Amino acid sequence: MSHHLASTTAAASSSPSRRPSLTSFPSPLHRPSALFQQTNFVATRTERKPAPSVAAAAASPVSPLHRLEEMSDHEAIPERLAVVTGGNRGIGIEVCRQLALQGVTVILTARDEERGKAAVESLCRESNLSNIIFHQLDILDAGSRASLARHIETRYGKLDILVNNAGVGGVAVDQEGLRALNIDPKMWLSGKAAHLVESVIIQTYDEAVKCLNTNYYGLKWATEALLPLLKKSTSGARIINTSSLRSELQRMPNEKLRESLRDADSWDEARIEAMLSEFLEDMKNGRLEAAGWPMMLPAYSMSKMVVNLYTRILARRHPEMRINCVHPGFVKTEINWNTGVLPPEEGARGAVMLALAPGDGPTGCYFDQTKMGEAW
């Protein structure tokens, strides 16, 4: 890379380069930079720009509350309350089911209200559960985030568990062509399928933008909106971020960046954004391989690497909470075009285990399903 990303952000800005200084890009929590304006990075899926700040998001007009049913004003506050993002299908709906079976009151959230309500109804009917509630949440929409936070504050006054599960794959796919290739799962997991799938998986700039925007920025914004409520937890707050095998740093070709990412103490959100800006610029200019970025699902891989890094940053800032990330396994879901081998029931186990972890459990760690892994 032309920037030495192993240095601090300030040092990177003074390095000679033909690219614009990465430190010139302000945080998207304030205003879009020239690059972000040009690429429509923020709020791609909703076609709305994020709030100028978290405080502004909380103060924005609140959209109508979307719930399957209203609770009685006299209903007791649950001992443990969880929010699951992207909870209407795949691993997310299984996390909701398994937490509810353990006695946790679960707010299942989904961007699509109709699909979210249908998911709650199916869980209540098929598993005989009454402790799952629906609330609409688009993690890229400031008003939607504020609506959920305000509802929880008004109704419950606290939050105990946040499972950040919502995500996208970051590529356009010819699914019929992909199925015809019949790629061995071991090839997927090793990353050796990168060249095999070039004809059926298209890496586009717009899809990369959507992927980073959803998988990292959306996760971060949703977490920030709910942090004040997590701090009020009466049972000890838990945050679980869904990661991926693609996030493991051994898959990062750039050695200097790989070593830098291992040092979480030297990173913050501004530096993460600078790195992602450079990644997008290299993608736009066809320089991914030359610059040493991951070539197997590059945007998805980068989004999950920074989710791991953000997890460690949060854990350092909030030692009173248990904050971890988890690779659910190669699960057969829509995000991987059903190429996985594990059922969603198994993929949910790691997140559920961490959500119910004891107060002296691990924090700032990466788990490969239910066992501690080595992402860095």
TrEMBL record:
Annotated segments matching region Disordered: 1-31
Keyword Oxidoreductase in annotation: yes
GO molecular function: oxidoreductase activity
Low complexity bias (residue ranges): 1-28
Domain of life from the UniProt record: Eukaryota
Any single GO CC term annotated in Swiss-Prot or TrEMBL for this entry: membrane
UniProt KW keywords: NADP, Oxidoreductase
Family, similarity comment: Belongs to the short-chain dehydrogenases/reductases (SDR) family.
Name of the protein in its database record: (+)-neomenthol dehydrogenase
Organism: Aegilops tauschii subsp. strangulata (Goatgrass)
